# Entry
Amino acid sequence: MSRIGVFVCHCGENIARTVDVAAVAEAIKDHPGVAFATDYKYMCSDPGQTMVKEAIEEHKLTGVVIAACSPHMHERTFRRACDQAGLNKYMCEMANIREHCSWIHEDRADATAKAIDIARTIVEKVKHNKPLESIRIPVTKRALVIGGGIAGIQAALDIADGGHQVVLIEKEASIGGHMSQLSETFPTLDCSQCILTPRMVEAYQHPNITLHTWSEVEKVDGYIGNFEVTIRKKARSVNEDLCNGCGDCQAACPAKRIPSEFEAGLGMRTAIYVPFPQAVPNIPVLDRQNCTLYKGRRKGLAKDACGKCKEACLKGAIDYDTEDTFIKEDIGAIVVATGFQLYSIGREQPEGLKGYGEYGYGEVPDVIDGLQFERLASASGPTAGAILRPSDGKEPTTVVFVHCVGSRDPEKGMKYCSKICCMYNAKHAMLYKHKVHEGRAVAFYMDIRAAGKGYDEFSRRAIEEDQAEYIRGRVSRIYRDGGKVKVWGYDTLSQEQVVIDADMVVLATAIRPQPGVEQLAQTLSISYDENGFINEAHPKLRPVETNTAGVFVAGACQAPRDIPDSVAMASAAGAKVMSLFSADELEREPAVAVVNENTCIGCMNCANVCAYGAIEQREICTVDGQVCGHVAYVNPGVCQGCGTCQAVCLSKSVELQTFTDEQVYSEINALCFWE
Amino acid sequence: MTDEHTLAGAGAGEARTPARYAYYPGCSLHGTSREFDESLRAVAAALGVSLTEIPDWSCCGASSGHTTDHMLGVALPARNLAIAEEQGFDQVLAPCAACYNRLSAARLAVDTEAGFAERVPEIIGRPFANSVEVHNAVELLRDAAPAIEEKVAAALVPNPLDGVKLAAYYGCLLVRPFEVCGYDDPERPTSMDEVIAACGAEPVDWNMKVECCGGSFSVSRTASVVRLGRSIIEDARANGAEAIVVACPLCHSNLDLRQKAMVQRGSRPMPVLFVTQLVGLALGLTPVELGMPRHFVNTEPFLADLVQRAAERVAAEQKVKEEAAAKAAARREKAGV
# Structure
């Protein structure tokens, strides 16, 4: 006979507001098999847990039901308490009367009745629970970091400094990400390259870090502690071992008019190129799309149309016939740090996006975005740091900065706030005023969101010390009018229309996740939100974990983030990886399917439907070693406990240890037929 | 006007069902903008589009109606749509931008707002299934662009519009709000530019395509309307336009009628044509058939200039041909010698 203890939690007022918790405890006390029932304000607190432990001892409990919050929240907490009191921890279950009851109902009597039903259901389940042992799986102490921006670099360095191997992959030719494009950073105005490039070099030279640039994740198999990752090293056409980074190939390349991605289109590059002089590694890639030789080959020319870079290379490092190669790495944990892109708001838009054609971006040369302004203001940029407008190279005397272009606009753009624009707009206005003293900087804003240490002071400084004119209101149109750029806006404070004859306009366009992040998320089995940002496991308590164990997230691929946030998040993800690597084995819940070999007929239906490839065929032998049949076998390390095999098994021979048919039917009976 | 031809040349030569519209002229096309009505009918006939005026049509409910009461603003146009429905039509042509907007808005309201589908038939006293689509003249002409191009190419006389730079002016109600109109981009529309290009003329890229013409303030705040109109006309001119093309009676009268005041303040006159008149000229209809003499800004100098330029082009082409022929003859002679 079971002796089950039921502990009903008030969760402060979260449950007690709509559920009469004392009545729940009172009602369940008389349920068959219940030996003890009580309620308490905070069951998860130390006194609450002590209450559970003492009751186990005093009432010789064989099972525990905690009627409180979701098992996601505190199941682990209470199972640990039971374990400490000498009760097998899998004899403890949560009855969720918060998310499933009190939070979603208003009527107290109805909610109380439902809470009793829920508690009774779980009591019936626990009657059929069996003591189980946790599964132990080995851990490969090697991390994969996807993305070589500041977040990826930080995470890689932290893990590598902790003594573990790291594989860092970056899809571009160089690590550094968007931070390497920035001029100066808020709120201190320190030079972005000066703080970033040493970190890039450190990552490259770290004995524990293997860097693959111009590479992408192709495939991920396995599970926490035991991933097998296939990396695609895109054909670089340059032998990384032979190249010494002299730059002769770049100088020899005749295709010199290709818009540079690093310069945000404001500068040009060659077809064989290093994105920027401080690139890490300082090894060029050959852009086959724009290369004269490859263009010729695509046209089917018999003879190669060019070959200047190969002639120029004294090291013989250039090979036009390289192809993509694939390498496999055994990995224990993955950090996703793929970063962001700016919303390109021009007229041509992919499906689902509307753009802002009325702002003239992409048509009026002096309408640029934030990253382009960064390049103009950067000492290493196309103008060597002078603020000169793209159309005629003249110094603009009036610059308009427009906040929230595509952000906070559910009608046409993104619903969310891009978070960093208020700060970088203030910075841009300052940088402009520091270089063009007589110039006029006008900013159109919705609200100034400058929350952060030293942030509000910084944006006030732009207004008060550098005389940036801030106008609260939106811009309706931007168009070219002779040599000027007309900006039509509305000042919502003075309620007047504003028309500004600007020389240049800088649009703070929305932050969006990198293109292709959805496919990557699918490869990793992690979820993303409607905007393509990676979902964290819990917005408050598990901000750097994803819903797939062993996969972590850092930086602007999770939400718009500035540098300090990205770095903090990266270090947090790094710490999570290190704590995972601190033990040789991982403990996993035994929520896996188990095959009853005595009844299994070996039809392998289960293996056909298993999405994780966890089921294999096993031979059954007689005593003298003769094979006499086949049965299914579930690899407990791979099984994710989804239960699909259980649903399709014709002979009822496979079931989840934690959700047996008996348990589930008891729950249904308790719900449907109990008076 | 009811004879039905096929839209010749449309859809790569395949025979299409004859375009058949219930025609809702609205007050403007029977009054201040008769030339829009005249040119539309003439062009429709030339393109084989049948227009049947809705019998006993009434006010579309623009401005005074819909600003007084929302239900009134929906019921008034719904009555006209219901009559078209009774007549067995599945589409209505409403050339006036305000009519088009009100008729479309009524359709949307009856479709989406709670209770409207039940109440509107009661109010207008006749069944209403909201089954009739509403189109404007620009939409019709844009869809007929291949037919227009083909007819222009097949004409025996030189096209007077060849290479003429024109500014397409859409104003507000033709394309906005997007939920109501939805046939073109609300901020950067292109439909009328496509029609201009089909006529052989060159649509200019300019900035005031959808700016306000002053609307019905023409009477109460004339000075504002003159100011707005001038900025529109000056931008068109600055971008190389020789004339402005419109598809709204109110836009037309604000730009055309009020130019007198602008000209007095030193502006040069700028012809303002209805899009139907433009297509008519390309199809070889006469200015009188198209109601051109009704404009306040005299279009005669502009049209005369077009004709002269066309003649000069023809003469120049002829000269080139003759010179080439003479050269060839000279070569032949030399070879013969």
In short: The domain at 139-301 of chain B is CATH 3.40.50.11810 (Rossmann fold).
